[in-house]
Amino acid sequence: MTNAAPAKVAVLISGRGSNMQALAAAQGDAYRLALVASDRPEAPGLAWADRQGIATFARSPKGTGKAAFEQALDTALHDAGAEWIALAGYMRLLSDTFVARWRGRIINIHPSLLPKYKGLDTHARAIAAGDEVAGCSVHVVTEELDAGAVLAQAEVPILAGDTPDMLAARVLIEEHRLYPAALKEFVRT
User: Fold this and answer.
1) SS3 of 47, please?
2) Is 139 noted as a catalytic residue in this protein?
C-alpha cells in the first residue's frame, strides 16, 4: 500500500513567523509547506522561509485594495499548488469571498480558549477578567471572526503577577506544540 503524498500547505503570516517555523519544523508525511505568504513584504518570517528554500509571496494591500490583494494571493496559492491554508500570526481579516473560495481548508491559531476573547488583546482581557487559565485554540476559519469549529486547545495557567507579555510568552510555547499536531490531523480529514 502506498502512502498518499503529503498535503501542500500555505502559511500566511504578518510578522516574525514563529508559528510558521514550528509548522515547518514538524512537516513530513502529513504535510509540506508549499508557500509562505505575507501582507507585509518586510515580515521577518519571509526571509526565514526563503533561507529554508520555501517559496514565498509578499505583497502589501495598500494602494491596490483588498480585492486585488486577495486575487493576487489566491493566484500565488494556486500557483504553489496549495491545498490548505494555515494562518499563523496573519493580522489581516480575510474577505467573505476569499474564505468561501477556500471553505473548510483554512485554519488559524488564536491566543485564547475560544469562544472566549475573540479578536485582539486576548491575554490582557483574560488577566483583567480574573481567569485562572488562558491558552490557545486552533480553529477552522469562517466568515465570522474566530468563530469556526475549534479543532484543538491547550491551557496555560495564569500566574499571580502575570503581565500580558508574560502570559503571551507561555501561551506561545503551547501554540508551537499545538498547531503542528492540529494541522496534521486537519489535513488528514
Assistant:
1) helix
2) no
pLDDT tens track for 83-103 = 999 999 999 999 999 999 999
- For residue range 37-60, what is the model confidence (pLDDT) as tens digits? 999 999 999 999 999 999 999 999
Bridge partners (DSSP) of residue 139 are: 108, 150
Rounded to an integer, what distance in angstroms lies between the CA atom of residue 100 and that of residue 114?
Answer: 22
Is 113:155 a contact under the CB 8 Å cutoff? yes
Cell numbers linked to 133: 487559565
Summarize pLDDT for 161-181 with one digit per residue, the tens: 999 999 999 999 999 999 999
Integer Cα distance of 146 and 139 in angstroms:
7
Pick the catalytic residue: 110, 123, 139, 176?
110
The model carries a pTM of 0.95
User: Is the N-terminal amide bond of 164 cis, ω within 30° of 0?
Assistant: no
Q: 7-187, which class in CATH?
A: alpha beta
DSSP 137-187: EEEE--SSTT-SPEEEEEEEEPPTT--HHHHHHHHHHHHHHHHHHHHHHHH
Q: pLDDT at residue 3 above 90?
A: no
